[in-house]
Every structure is written in structure tokens, then in C-alpha cells.
Amino acid sequence: MSPDATTATILVQPLPLPFLPDAVIFDMDGLMLDSERAINLCMARAARELGHDLPDTLWLQMIGGGDGLCRRLLAERIGGEATDVLLDRAEAMYDAVADAGIDHRPGIVDLLEFLVARGIPRAVATSTRRPLAVRKLAAAGLAPYFDAVCTSSDVPRPKPAPDVYLLAASTLGVAPSRCLVLEDSPTGVRAALAAGMTPIQVPDLLEPDDEVRALRHRIVQSLGEAQRLLEARLAIG
């Protein structure tokens, strides 16, 4: 391997964690649950059934943005009334999927058990509304792992505003600067940074572009890799 190739390999490695966090805060959809794919499939199916010709890229634009962003993007294309009908149909489809239990993202249970064993507090901070978020976590068997669940229903502004992350830190009684955040979406990463927290991004459907990488946060390819960062920091003390 040439020196240049070696240097390139080193540069793409995530930076070590600067501290052992007092709490870890988790996004839910796309990070812990394989729900972004399920949501997108329900939205696309509802659109087709209602006769709307919408591009697949539209669903990707909605990732991490909450109900308000989804409604706005749809309304710009098909109008407000048609948007209401589409969202109602997609929601009914998705409720059935959620109640059956959405698949875990690889590595989530191992990571949660690692944190539980070490007594590190854990919270959820999600753009999903509270009733659905609670149902999804319970159906997936993840609810018992968390000390707090904070949702878009609990704050005035959704991500990328920092509100839901600040609420999670306050609920756990931990300073924002001592919180590690795990996120899959650029929107969530921006929310964590705005809250003064340290994010690790585990991309799912959206690969970070140059604008996102310019935020200079840690990006890893799996939850297992995020766990290894924590293990390395724990070994340092």
C-alpha cells in the first residue's frame, strides 16, 4: 500500500470520543428501527393507490424531518386536501406495520445492553409523535432499555431545532455537553449539534453529502462501530 493510500485510510476513520458520556441519547426511526424503509413503502403505496405520480426521491427528503416537513413537501406537489387523504391512508398502513413490530437495525440490542451493563443512562429523542413512538418501541421490545422517551409531541419545535434533545438531557438530569447522540439523519445531527451535544451519525437511507460532512462530526457505518468507539473510550477512562 502506498503512503497516500495509508493516509487516506487513516483520514476516514472516525475521531476518538473526547469523553466518556454521562448519557447516550438515541434517535429512533432509521437508527434503532428499520422504519424508514417501512414508512417510505407505505407512503409510496398510498400515493400509487390514489393516483399520484411522485418520485422516490421525495420520500428520502422527508427523513428525520417530522410530520410538518412531510406535509409541506407533499402539499407543494399535490395540494393540501390531497395531502391529508394520502397521509391518512399511509398512516393506517404504517400503524399495522408498527403494531406488528418493526425490525431492529443491526447491533442495537448489543449496544443497549452494553450501556445498561455499565450504568450509562439512555433516552430516546424522536421526531415521531408520542403515541406512535411509545407503541413502536414497545412492539419492537426496546422500551425497557430506556430511562426516558422524548418525542415531537413534547416540544414546541421539531428537529433540526435542538428542543427534543435538550428535553432528553433535562429529563435524565445530564448536562447537554455530557451527552452522546446517535443519529442516522442529517436533520438529527444538526439538532444534536444545536443542543451542544456530541453526535455520532450511523447513516441508513441517506449517505452524508459534502455539506453534511462539513459539520465535522463522527460518521460510522454501523451501531457496532459506534459501540467500539465507546469501548475504546471506556478503556481510556
Number of strands: 6
Average pLDDT, rounded to a whole number, is 91
Regarding CATH, which class of the largest domain?
A: Alpha Beta
Uncertain segments of ≥5 residues (pLDDT<50)? 1-11
| Count of discrete alpha- or pi-helical segments spanning 4 or more residues | 11
Radius of gyration, taken over Cα atoms and rounded to an integer in Å = 18 Å
| Biggest sheet record | 6 strands, parallel
Oligomer: single chain
Query: How do the SSEs run, as a string of H and E?
Result: HEHHHHHEHEHEHEHEH
CATH topology of the largest domain: Rossmann fold
- The helix content, as a percent range, equals 40-55%
The backbone outline, from C-alpha atoms, is globular
The class by helix and strand makeup works out as alpha/beta
Domain module count: 2
Strand neighbour order, sheet with most strands: 3-2-1-4-5-6
Distance between the termini: 34 Å
| Name of the CATH superfamily of the largest domain | HAD superfamily/HAD-like
